[in-house]
Each structure stands twice: as structure tokens, then as C-alpha cells.
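Project channel, design review

CF: Before we commit to the Aegilops tauschii subsp. strangulata constructs, I'd like one complete example in the thread so the newer folks can see what an input/output pair looks like. Taking KIB1-4 beta-propeller domain-containing protein.
RD: sounds good, go ahead.
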Amino acid sequence: MCFPRRPPINNLVRTRPCHATNIANQDTYQCCQIPLHSIFGENNTPPSPLKGFRFSGASYGHLIFSRHKSCLVVDVFTGVSVSSPKLPVIKDIGIFYAALTAPLASPNSHVIVDIGSRNLFWRVGSRYWVGRSPDDGPIKQIVVFKGRAFGIDSDIRLFKVQLTPQICIQEIPVMESSMIRKWHHSDRWLVICGDMLLMVALRGPIIVTGVTFEVFRLDLSTKPALWLKVEKLENWAIFISTDKRSQALSCMNPEIWGGRSNCVYCYNHDSKHWVALELGKPLQGNGPTSKFNPNIFIFMGRDSKVQPMWVFPSMLSFCR
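CF: and here is what came back for KIB1-4 beta-propeller domain-containing protein:
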């Protein structure tokens, strides 16, 4: 799909061949090209145009990097990149979170970044950034649900974000709940499951045997809105990265490809396999033998390096 005022495309970034593993068949790989730089763990690589860039987020099959006053959005599978205009800041700043609101080909695709003190929005293809933020601090995560953008801040306050014709952020009143107070959970992911907007929450920064996730569904039918605890995901599975700057995904009827419903999947760096946690049951490890692993330890954090992430084939441009 083409759209007007397409941003500059950078095809000169050196890439390295990588593989995407098919979760349904670990012996099946898909060719892809990842930008060549030490942030991917390559310590002996030659100089790269990405030198100095740091990982800031991943969504819709794209990696988002930042350096000083610049952002670079890179297609996971082709390495083709899109550069943003300079950020409207006086001095070099760090970007704590970055995300797309839609695939790059969408005529209404925006990049949102969190620079610590506020949010900045860039409509892909435009020549400038727009600064908009809630009064008490920036949005930390954003998702698009039923055509509308929703975000949460560090205090789990909920916001509706209008992207057109101009950026407008409005807080949605939510009834206070002791189950989801901010000090109860150190990590949270917003994820869309069909007609549900869910928040997946983890108590503490580490996944170990016996730890459980909690899932809450947003109910907008009442005023104020409610976060209702979900006891079962029914025929859905959720996929999260150990770095919550990467977009969380969901899949309906995972049994079709050999997966399990009512589970939260994440990647275990030590075993090089994913683990699946069924809601209401102890954490289990899924390796080649699919047997229970009593010694799982997964740290949930953030790094300048890109962590393993989940993608759907429909998000990507596959190599031929």
C-alpha cells in the first residue's frame, strides 16, 4: 500500500542473516535480515550506520531505535528503515519507550515516544513531532483497540488518545481496585484479545517456578470503567517479551498449531525455549520434551540490546 508524503527509506544499513523460529515446528525457520550492530550482541562486527542507536521498542513487526535526537524504525525481516525528523528537544535525551500505533503502510501510522518528562508523536511521513502528555507524566504503553488508541501511565491511569485530526489525550476514569494497585505489580502489558482489552500483570520482576500472572479485562460499559479480573483466557493464548517495550500479542485457538489455550507464553534465555504459564496453575517449561521444568528463572527487564520477541507472519515482509 502506498500513501502520500512517504518518509525517506534507508536501504544502506548493513544487515546480518537471522532466523525466525516457527513455534509450531522448531525445525522450521524463516530467513530475515537484522541490522548489524553490537546492540544485537555482536561484539566483533564492523562499523555500522546504527552505531550509537539504542533499542527503544518493538511493534507491528518493526524495531524502533533512538540516538540523541533521532529515531529509526526498522522492518524486522527486510532491514529497510524509516527515519524520523529530529526530536524537538534542546539537548540530547533518552527515550524510555517507543511504539507504532499502526503498521507503517497505514495512512494514520504514528510513532509515540516517552522521553521521561512527556510524550512526543510523529505521524509517519510528516516533517515534525507533536508534544502531548497527561498532566502528571507520560504514557508508558499504548495499544489500538477497536480503532481507538488507549494508553496507561506508571500509575495505571487509563487514557484515550485521539490521533486525528490532532493529538488529544483524555483520561478515562477507572474505579479504584485493590487488585491492580501499582505497588502490587512491577510489570504490566496491554494486549488485545479479540473484543477484549486486557492487562497482563506480574508480581515482581522475575518469573520463577510457582509465580503466576494475573489478567484483567477493561469494562467500558460502566462509568467509571472497571478492570475485571479474568480467571480464564478460554481459547486465547498471550505472548509477551521479557522487555515490555516489545508489543504483546494474542492468538486464538492455539491448538491449531500445537499450542495451548489459557496460557501466557514467554521466552526463556537460559534454555533457549519458551515457557507457558497456564492461568491458575504453576509455571511450566516448554522445551523439546514439553516436560515440567522445576528450575525456571526469567528476569523481566529492559536493555539497549534487542531481546527475543514475538511476531506474526502477517506483520512482516518475508525474504524470498
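RD: helpful, thanks. The first strand starts at residue 9 and ends at 10.
CF: Residues 75 and 210 are 37 Å apart (CA to CA).
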